[in-house]
Write a structure and sequence with these properties.
Elements lengths: L3 E7 L5 E4 L4 E7 L4 H10 L1 H17 L10 E4 L2 E9 L5 E5 L2 E6 L4 H28 L11 E3 L7 E3 L5 E3 L8 H13 L8 H10 L3 H15 L3
Parallel strand pairs: 1-3, 5-7, 8-10
Antiparallel strand pairs: 2-3, 4-5, 6-7, 9-10
């Protein structure tokens, strides 16, 4: 795995290190910190970073490239389903039925099945994300109304918040458990109040989801499977 790292300045008194599912390492440091100090902070956690990068590589090796044929495992809201491709010259639809995600179609080419599934996931994600945004934002005192949001396919992020306050969510997130969706939504909603990863941002996150670190760990641990399209 190619080692990549980036530096991000934040408001706070200490450095934070993140290892993302794509293998990228991010070092967040106070704005007054020098590059040498950032490298020192990274070296101090070198063993921890190396262990996480090794685990990511092992998970990637275990994930087989998807063929979009009957028998493969697919995910929806954290549950595993068996993909079933049903050839049909008439009916054209995608349905969940008895532990299966059935794609009934006249075109059974892998590329066509992939496109049908992507369309189905986006439709489900639109409904799920709208409900979770409303549910998560409702008790937050700094959110007066549900913010505008859009879906965007992203390779390295589950979500983001634009400077204008628009929430961006990865449609693949609908494959994850509701608790993980809520974590990503809350993370971005916290950015409406704290526009960086400051200590106050993390206090805000923890105040509204005390177990956010465990939820994030669960999400990161399955990211290779959820993002395997």
């Amino acid at each position: 795995m190619e080692f990549r790292w980036r530096l991000r300045e934040v408001v706070g008194s200490k450095a934070r290190i993140h290892v993302y599912p794509n293998g990228q390492v991010e070092v967040e440091t106070p704005s007054e910190a020098t590059l040498a100090e950032a490298k020192k902070a990274l070296l101090k956690r070198a063993r921890w970073v190396t262990r996480h990068l090794k685990e990511i590589e092992e998970r990637r090796m275990a994930v087989l490239e998807r063929q979009y044929v009957s028998g493969e495992t697919v995910f929806y809201l954290g549950r595993r389903y068996t993909l079933k491709v049903v050839p049909s010259s008439e009916a054209q639809h995608v349905k969940m039925l008895r532990g299966q995600l059935r794609v009934t179609t006249s075109d059974t080419k892998p590329s066509a099945i992939k496109a049908r599934l992507a369309e189905w996931y986006r439709g489900r994600a639109k409904d799920v994300f709208a409900r979770r945004l409303m549910a998560v934002s409702e008790p937050l005192p700094w959110v007066e109304q549900t913010p505008p949001w859009v879906m965007r396919d992203m390779k390295t992020q589950w979500g983001s918040c634009s400077p204008a306050g628009t929430i961006l969510l990865n449609p693949h997130l609908v494959k994850t458990p509701i608790r993980c969706i809520d974590y990503v939504v809350l993370h971005e909603l916290c950015h409406l109040k704290e526009h960086n990863h400051s200590n106050e941002f993390y206090r805000l996150l923890k105040r509204n989801m005390p177990d956010w670190e465990a939820v994030k760990m669960r999400l990161d641990g399955m990211s290779e499977l959820y993002l395997n399209t």
